[in-house]
Structure formats: C-alpha cells, structure tokens
Write a structure and sequence with these properties.
- The protein is of the alpha+beta class.
- It has a single domain, classed as Outer membrane efflux proteins (OEP).
- The chain is built from nine helices and four strands, in the order αααββααααββαα.
- A four-stranded antiparallel beta sheet has the order 1-2-3-4, with no helix packed on it.
Length: about 425
C-alpha cells in the first residue's frame, strides 16, 4: 500500500483540526475543538481508528497475493546391486505459483477498497458518536433549563408566601391563605430538587461518555432557527456526505471485485519451479524447470456463482441503505420544521399566560382576586414557560441533528476538507 497508517492518521487529525474553522460555531453547543477532542477520544472512534491500520494491513496482504516461494531439498542413497557400490543422489529446488495478470490487477483494486472501507468505517463511527454526544448534550440542556425554571418558581412562590404572610399579619387575609402559599412553595421546591437531580444525572452521563467535553455552569439558550431550505437540498447534501452510504457503496464494489476474482480463479494459476539434481555422486548433473497446473473442478465454478450472488446481495444492501437514509433525512427535515412551528405556538402561549398571571397578581394585591386564582395562574404560566423552553430545545436539537446527519454541523471525515458547512 502506498500510504502508511501513520500518515493517514496524522492527515486525518490535522485535517479535522483545520476543518473546524470552516464550520460555524453555535453559542448553545460546545466549542468545535472540544467536540472533536471528545469524539476522537471516544472508545468507538479509537477502535475505528485502529481499524484503519487493520484495513491497511489487510490491503497489503491482498496486494501481496497468497503465494510464497517453496524451497525443495532431497537426499537419497543408491546401491548398485551388481557391484555393491553405494552412491549419493541429492536435489534442491525453488517453486512458486504465479498469479495471472488479470488476477493481480483485481487484487490491487481489492486492496484499495479494503483500506477505503476502513477509513469510511472510521468516519461512520465519528458520525454515530457525534449523534450520541448531541443527544446527551440536549438531554442535559433540557434538564438544566427545567431545573433553573423550577428554581425561579420556588423563589417566586417564596416571595408570594412572604407577601401573603404580611397581609395575614395585617389582618387583610385569612391564615388559610398563608398555608396555601406555603404548600405551593413546597411543591415547587420538590419539583426543583427533582429537576436538579435529573440535570445532575444527565451531566454525569455526558461526562462519563465524553470526559473532555466542558459543561458550562450557565449554558446559553438561544431561540431556535427555522429550516428554510427545501427537502431536496437536504437530501442532496446528506447523501453526498454520508459515511454509511459510502461504506455500503465500497462494500458493493468490493463484492463485485471479489466476484470477478472468483470468476478469474476458474482458470488456475500455474506453479513454476526450478530444480537442480546431482546423481551418482555427482557423475550426472541435471537442471530443469517444472510447470504444474491444477485441473479446475466444480468447486471453482461454485465459488464463481457464490461471488456473483454475494455481489447482488451487496448491491441490494446499498439500495436499502439509500432508501433508509432518504427516509431518515426526510423524517429529520419534517421534525425540524414541525418542531419550530410548535415552539412558535408555545412561545405565544407562554407570553399570554405570563400576562394573565401578572394581571391576576395585581388584582389580588388590589383585593379583586382570590389567592386560589393567583396560584392557578402562576402554575399555568410556569407550565407554559416550561413547554416553551422544551419546545425551543426540541426545535434546536432537531435542526442540529439535521445539520449533523448532512455533515454541516461538525467536521467528521477527511473528505470534508473542501466542504464549507453552515446553514
């Protein structure tokens, strides 16, 4: 093989670092350099990187061919009956099977495909690991955001409880109202502690899988962005940069080459040998060439038929991968668009509920509304804000997932060095 594993690995790593500048940074995502470091140190990616070395070695083996030289040596004693004389005979030789030229050419192509498949498996491992990172990141964001909002609700209910306590002390409210506000505050505090526990567990899980990934104390939440490009754009870009599809294509091409190789093997390779023989204590010297050719049988014909069938299987697998990826990209596109619309509705509902809660709180202060109405309005407002926050994070995650699956979010393969991401 022309390229060594070290050169491939260094080229891939430096390319990845250089590519980071070509992709956008997003404030609600970790920095790209941190993402790349986390991905490259993930066990699945490290294993795939070792697979590149294995793929190269396998390619070198295929290119070198299955045949080696055999050294022959023999020694014998001859006894002449008439004279009773003992004579020594010995033979040395060297032989090897010779690959026919068409088989040699096929093997060189197979070697290249084997190394290429290993590189694409590495890119696919990066992609799948990036999916896990993105999902874990947004799980943590969602739980952290909920914890922060329940904390705000707890503080708000504390203020409400303090206000009611003053009114009760002044004789403007019944003691029952103080109990109601205290119960509401305690309920909010319990919800806050539960949300904090979920956020801590999500952070621990993310750190376990990606120790190098920094988790900010106060993660930035950004309004989601709508997907404006048509579905055809995402299908084209996604299928052009998908490692899984490229790997399926490589496997299909490899199967075709292996079928050609099996068909070529129906004509056996000849074995050529050189030998030198000394007989009668060196009185006779014999040098010669041997040529042997196996007689092909039904096994070779069966191997050829098997190769053709496996090539058809690989081609159909490629078609299946293509169909599935189209379906997945379409579903991701529809999810991203619908999630954004859901967020818009949730945002509008949250603003209405907040205004309603503020109005009822002012009415309570003026004695025009009861405490039960205030607490109900506060709860409805909180539920609306939580729904808006989660809908916004769902919309952002679905859009980032679409960008990730179309290789426009983070650089995940050496073939992307000319690809300028962004959308």
């Amino acid at each position: 093989m022309k390229r060594t594993f070290i050169s491939l690995l260094l080229a891939g790593c430096f390319a990845s670092l250089a590519q980071a500048g070509e992709f956008k940074e997003y404030p609600d995502l970790p920095p790209q350099q941190s993402v790349l470091s986390a991905l490259e140190n993930a066990p699945s990616v490290v294993a795939a990187r070792a697979g590149i070395q294995a793929g190269q070695a396998a390619g070198d083996r295929i290119a070198a061919g299955p045949y080696e030289f055999n050294v022959l040596a023999g020694d014998s004693r001859r006894r002449i009956t008439d004279t009773g004389q003992n004579q020594r005979d010995w033979t040395v030789g060297l032989e090897s099977a010779l690959r026919l030229p068409n088989k040699y050419n096929i093997d060189q192509k197979l070697a290249e495909q084997t190394a290429t498949a290993a590189e694409q498996s590495y890119g696919d491992a990066m992609h799948e690991t990036a999916r896990r990172l993105l999902a874990g990141w947004f799980t943590w964001l969602k739980e952290t955001a909920q914890s922060a909002q329940w904390q705000q609700q707890t503080e708000l209910m504390q203020k409400q409880a303090d206000s009611v306590a003053r009114r009760v002390k002044a004789g403007d409210a019944a003691a029952l109202e103080s109990d109601l506000t205290e119960a509401a505050r305690l309920q909010a505090e319990v919800a806050w502690q539960q949300a904090k526990l979920r956020a801590d567990n999500a952070a621990a899980s993310l750190r376990n899988y990606f120790p190098a990934l920094p988790l900010p104390a106060n993660p930035a939440l950004q309004p989601p962005i709508a997907v404006s490009e048509p579905l055809e754009h995402w299908l084209t870009v996604g299928l052009d940069h998908n490692h899984e599809l490229m790997l399926a294509r490589t496997e299909s091409k490899t199967a075709q080459l292996m079928a050609q190789r099996a068909d070529a093997d129906r004509l056996p390779d000849p074995t050529v040998g050189l030998h030198y023989t000394s007989e009668r204590d060196g009185a006779d010297k014999i040098a010669g060439i041997t040529l042997s050719i196996p007689l092909p049988g039904s096994a070779r014909r069966a191997a050829s038929r098997e190769g053709e069938a496996r090539a058809q299987m690989a081609a159909q697998k490629e078609a299946m991968v293509m169909q599935r990826l189209k379906s997945e990209i379409t579903a991701s596109y529809n999810t991203a668009r619908t999630s954004y619309l859901n967020w818009q509705s949730a945002h509008a509902a949250s603003e209405l509920m907040q205004r309603n809660a503020d109005k009822i709180a002012r009415a309570y202060d003026l004695g025009e509304a009861g405490l039960t109405e205030v607490l109900l309005a506060r709860k409805q407002s909180l539920d609306a804000r939580l729904s808006e926050t989660l809908a916004g994070l769902d919309a952002a995650e679905s859009r980032y997932r679409l960008l990730l699956d179309t290789h426009q979010l983070w650089p995940l393969g050496a073939e992307e060095h000319d690809h300028d991401g962004g959308s």
